[in-house]
Amino acid sequence: MLFSSMTFVFMFLPIVCTLYLLVRKELKNFVLLAASILFYAWGEPRYVAIMLATIVINWLGGILISETKYKKTMLFLTVIGDLSFLFYFKYFNFFVENINALIGGHIDFIKVIMPIGISFYTFQAISYVVDVYREEVKAQKDIYKLALYISLFPQLVAGPIVKYHDVADQIENRTVDFDKVYYGVRRFIVGLAKKMLLANTMGAVADKIFTQPTEQLDVAISWLGAVCYTLQIYYDFSGYSDMAIGLGSIFGFKFLENFNYPFISKSISEYWRRWHISLGSWFRDYMFLPLSRAFSLSKTYGKAMHAIGRKRANILLTFIALFIVWFATGFWHGAAWTFIVWGLYNGFFIFVEILTGWNKDQKSIGGRIAQHLYTILVFVLSFVIFRSNTLSYAWDYLLTMFGIKQGGEVIYKMAYYVDRLEIIALIVGIFCATPVFAKMLSLNEKHKVLNILIDVWLLVLFVVSTSYIAASTYNPFIYFRF
Questions:
Q1: Is residue 165 among the annotated active site residues?
Q2: Which entry of 106, 165, 276, 333 is annotated as an active-site residue?
């Protein structure tokens, strides 16, 4: 079930909210748990068992980690159990296809269909057992409360990735009041408008361009496609995150922000502190920092330090850790070489920035402008790799963007790909990707008349957005496939 669907907006959500507000406090978690399982089963009933198995494995794993002396072994087995589901359902096809290509053989196999949201709820489950192992939280003895954490429908299928230690207290005790519901409704409408009015509009343009052979594109059209797809994925995912945060607030939860205007970044390092924050912090807390500590304590690091010096050994350690983390980040996004290359591409620039100090703010205005332009160029080009179905298409597309490769005569001119409404959406999308509009509103937060006007404007956005839902057959959500 999509948040941006008539079924969710006008049937599922009102019923769940009504039940949640009517039942007494000790039953609210059960209402949310039942709603979450129904929400997931609505689209993929056969895969509910996988999610329930994940819940049971991590519930038992958390208890065994906290109550036995074999903590590391229990943690290892639990994480392996989580990753086994993820590997089979997300990566099995990829490995068999690549083995066939490598050995020139033909291993017959039935292609596996990936359950929606498995990447997100698997990472949440892993964060829980690791937090228990680190003694940052106590093991949850009530299985239904852990089930609620893993399956909570606002962030179940596309994040943000909520760490257990951030919501453990809220699962036990939270309040719902008018201010939280009011904020949640506002935030949900903003996210819905981002999705329906901006992401879908930009996506229609990007899809028309990226489905063309690169020989049929020129420099201007290829850049238009890259920019439109960059805006599509930003508004698609940040819009969903807004809706998830808004829904969480309606039910008394406070989820951390997942986007913080990444397009104003001055380095790729900063960009990844602002883009998909929950994923970046997950890889930092549960992979990069543990890897760095393990490497620094290893005998190999000690030998390298004596052989080449501490500074060079630290650079080597950082390179290896970044390579592993960004390989995993790319592979997490999808079982394809394009995603792996995209991840390593980002890791490469972050490593270069660390070496050169380019990730530090420049003092001169010219230096800061150069940083912004460099960052925008790097991440726009990265999304060409991300969007392309093959590496060869991505390479040809990038060459076309810079006029290095030009095929035959361009059949479809610019007017075929973008109309006036889409140009307006493009301009609005670029403007709203900066904090200028948000800052203008924040200056008048306590102005009653302005707040009323904002509420009226949000109501208009809601009506227009839902009319688009009713009328449109084009309503994809990019991160569902991750």
A1: no
A2: 333
